[in-house]
UniProtKB/TrEMBL annotation:
Record keywords, A-Z: Lyase, Metal-binding, Zinc
Zinc is among the record's keywords: yes
Domain of life: Eukaryota
Protein name: CENP-V/GFA domain-containing protein
Length: 146
């Protein structure tokens, strides 16, 4: 059964949603790379990978702002609220049109329960005091952020 997950930025001006046929179609991951640490302002970034065409801006949403940076030769687009600065989503040029990565913390409480992390990226950059995600089937590549 298709389920729609809703979320918003910090102030609520930018509102978004994505629909999944089953929760397994979304992949939540932690990313310990330097780039995510800076953008999220935290010790890791946390995003849900969802199919590109299942994500949309919700009715009444403000237009997000867009920042594009060079991420080791790839254009990395990050979108956020122009009012409060809260992160919304990102995607690199090789994912554009296929997948987008949505900020986990922006999801409604009930939605977060459905989508626990299944992957951790750049584990060599995990802060030494930070524990790894529980579970034997968690995917932990050291480099790739796909
Ligand atoms: Zn906002
Ligand atoms: Zn990252």
């Amino acid at each position: 059964m298709v389920k729609t997950y809703h979320g918003a930025c910090y102030c609520g001006a930018v509102k978004w949603e994505f629909a999944l046929d089953k929760p397994e179609d979304g992949r939540t991951s932690l990313c310990h790379c330097e780039n995510c640490k800076r953008w999220f302002g935290s010790n890791y970034g946390m995003l849900i990978k969802v199919p590109w065409d299942r994500f949309k801006w919700s009715e009444g949403s403000a237009e997000p702002r867009t920042h594009v940076s060079d991420n080791k030769g790839h254009a990395l687009t990050r979108q956020f609220c122009g009012e409060c600065g809260g992160g919304v989503r990102d995607f690199s040029d090789d994912a554009e049109g296929k997948f987008t990565y949505v900020c986990y913390g922006g999801m409604d409480d009930e939605a977060r329960k459905d989508l626990p992390p299944k992957a951790e990226f750049f584990v060599s950059k995990r802060e030494p005091w930070c524990q790894d995600v529980k579970g034997d089937d968690v995917y932990r590549p050291n480099e790739l952020h796909e």
